Amino acid sequence: MIEIKQDTIAPPALAAILGTGKALELLDVRTPPEYAAAHVPGAQLRPLNELDTAALLAHHTPGVPIYVLCQSGARATQALERLRRAGCSDGILVEGGTQAWIDAGLPVHRGRSRVLPLQRQVQLTIGSLAATGAGLALTISPWFALLPLFLGCGLIVAGATGTCGMALLLARMPWNRGENRCTQCFSQE
To answer: Residue 132 sits in a domain of what CATH number?
Structure first.
């Protein structure tokens, strides 16, 4: 495994840099509905499952920082790994992602999204499948116990690697791809 140097910045420090007007790029790698619900002003939406590093770097000026964020940091870390593998060393992780930005009381643009955040979709899906498998194992056949076992193993792998297969799958669903703009945005004071 390649060891990746991880440059990070806290949301208040990034907010201070944004206030100076210095040249930088700010990428949000969450799903379109997550972005539409709330995003850092000036962040460009580049969903992780659609991130084309070659196209991004074709328009990038070397030496200009690329600040990357997601909801809490896992997807942004994956995006930075892709950028570094493509030869870009200008990527910087925004610590704690959009949630840390919001928790710090910094301004966000909020829109209207009718889609649940990706993490809640994952929780609902896994919980529903596990409960269904357990119920079927108790009433129909013990073989259905393999379903919650499989899901539990998937959660262990996700926790150990920081990559959730269910989240990657759900991010590709049509309802997570439809809203790609923040319409009727307003700032949070």
So the answer is: 3.40.250.10
